[in-house]
Write a structure and sequence with these properties.
The protein is of the alpha+beta class. The protein contains ten helices and 21 strands. It has three domains: about 10-115, Phosphorylase Kinase, domain 1 (2-Layer Sandwich), CATH 3.30.200; about 120-185 and about 200-295, Transferase(Phosphotransferase) domain 1 (Transferase(Phosphotransferase), domain 1, Orthogonal Bundle), CATH 1.10.510; about 365-465, Lamin Tail domain (Immunoglobulin-like).
């Protein structure tokens, strides 16, 4: 216990005792508190029992922002109810359901499904050398599916980290904590939220610390990238404040774990860029990039992962072959069955059949055709000069001197022969698909600048120079 010089308990210890005092109490005349699961700057999470439905639940106690000079208590209550209803409307296999919410005094409560299992924080602590890449990418795919879903509902999580992600005994991943969730309006990104907070330093992007800035979908991607960094290396990354003060404190994931593939490292480093414009634009883009990374550098799962002892029930780990092995086995069985049926169906005097030839898929070929830095507006023309269509999801343009990035919208496709003009000028209006807006500021104002078109994997597909001094 922590005492002051006079022997009195410090504020932190008093707060902890106050949270412990909830144990055994009944909230909202219904939920009996059994034990404290965890605490944080925003309040606490309790394990409780709901006798009405005879089930165990997790109750998140949220403490309103102490600075309430601009928002009266009744306004805070109204906003909490609105945000709680938004969470209660979510239904996704990797998100716990919010089944109830209520207010008692100045405290607000969310009632959620209690997810059995262990946090990824507990699992990575038992594997200090880092976890298997194939396993981590499977978890990342589940988490990105959840982020796609909540971002589509205009919500930002803002506190993604290993301790807020649980793995069930069956291997499903849940993003469990919504303490800092924020409604996000793309037309009004500074939407006020009651549940203010900075998150956890090692996983929070720089914009989460700046009261003049705002968080959006890319903020969640930074936090997920930092989480993947921790899971793959066994070490939490340097916080953004330390990265700013001591740039050498941040090092690439492969420095700590050479088993990480370069393609996966490239994705992590991109979403952990301090400059938000350099990150992937959406969870869909990041998810596609990780799929390509795994295909480009296929890695066989080691199947080994040390699990810490569970605090409640043992976590059984039946041996299961990797996803790749299971597909190979199922494919082999299917081929044997097909072959057997085909042999049985061959007539005694077979009639020769014409040999079918596969028609090759026409390839796409997307190029930068023009970089105009002296016109108003400035613009770049991108054209698909190939014979097939090209989905531009995850592709991006880079200004080499700026540097500034433009991310193509998810689902944007260029058909064979089709072109798009990407404009950069003050007062531009985005009018897709013929014209896309890069920025409201001038981009190509530096002699020697270069536009680089990169695909999902970050590989340069085309470049175009501006000015005679361009290398």
């Amino acid at each position: 216990m922590i005492y002051s010089k006079r022997g009195a308990l410090c504020d932190l210890e008093i707060a902890s005792l106050s949270m412990e005092s909830f144990i055994g109490q009944t909230l909202n005349n219904r939920y009996r508190i059994i034990r404290l699961l965890g605490t944080g700057g925003m309040g606490a999470v309790y394990f409780a029992h709901d006798p009405v439905l005879d089930r165990n639940v997790a109750i998140k106690q949220l403490q309103a922002d102490p600075i309430t000079d601009q928002l009266l208590n009744e306004q805070i209550r109204t906003q909490f109810q609105r945000e709680a209803r938004s969470l209660a409307s979510l239904h996704h296999p990797n998100l716990p359901r919010v089944t109830d919410y209520f207010t008692e005094g100045q405290r607000h409560y969310l009632v959620m499904d209690y997810i059995e299992g262990q946090t990824l924080q507990e699992i990575v602590q038992a594997n200090p050398g880092g976890l298997d890449e194939v396993q981590v990418l499977d978890w990342a795919d589940q988490l990105l599916s959840a982020l796609e879903y909540i971002h589509e509902h205009h919500l930002i999580h803002r506190d993604i980290k290993p301790s807020n992600i649980r793995r069930t005994p069956q291997g499903r991943i849940f993003l469990v904590d919504f303490g800092l969730v924020k409604p996000y309006d793309p037309n009004n990104p500074r939407t006020i939220t009651m549940m203010h907070g900075l998150g956890t330093p090692e996983y929070s992007p720089p914009e989460q610390y700046d009261p003049q800035s705002h968080t959006d979908e890319r903020s969640d991607l930074y936090a997920l990238g930092a989480t993947l960094y921790h899971l793959l290396t066994g070490q939490a990354p340097a916080s953004v404040t330390r990265r700013t003060a001591e740039p050498d404190s941040f090092y690439a994931p492969r420095t700590a774990n050479a088993r990480i593939s370069p393609e996966v490292e490239r994705v992590i480093l991109r979403v952990m860029e301090l400059e938000r414009a350099k990150r992937f634009a959406t969870a869909t883009d990041m998810r596609a990039a990780l799929h390509i990374a795994l295909q480009t550098h296929p890695t066989e799962s080691t199947g080994t992962m040390a699990l810490p002892p569970s605090s409640s029930a043992p976590l059984p780990q039946p041996h299961r072959p990797s996803k790749r092995k299971r597909l190979i086995i199922l494919g082999a069985i299917a081929l044997v069955i097909i072959a057997a049926v085909a042999v049985a169906a061959i007539p005694k005097n077979p009639v020769p059949l014409p040999v079918a030839t596969d028609t090759p898929i026409a390839p796409a070929n997307v190029k930068i055709m023009l970089l105009s830095g002296t016109t108003a507006p400035e613009y770049i023309v991108i054209q698909n000069v190939g014979n097939g269509s090209q989905d531009m999801s995850g592709w991006y343009l880079e200004s080499a001197v700026g540097p500034q990035l433009f991310n193509f919208p998810a689902g944007f496709t260029l058909q064979s022969g089709e072109s798009v003009r990407i404009e950069s000028f003050t007062g531009a209006v985005n009018n897709p698909p013929k014209v896309l807006l890069w920025s409201t500021d001038a981009i190509w104002r530096n002699a020697g600048d270069k536009a680089i078109l990169r695909n999902k994997a970050g590989v340069a597909e085309s470049t175009e120079c501006y000015g005679d001094a361009c290398p």
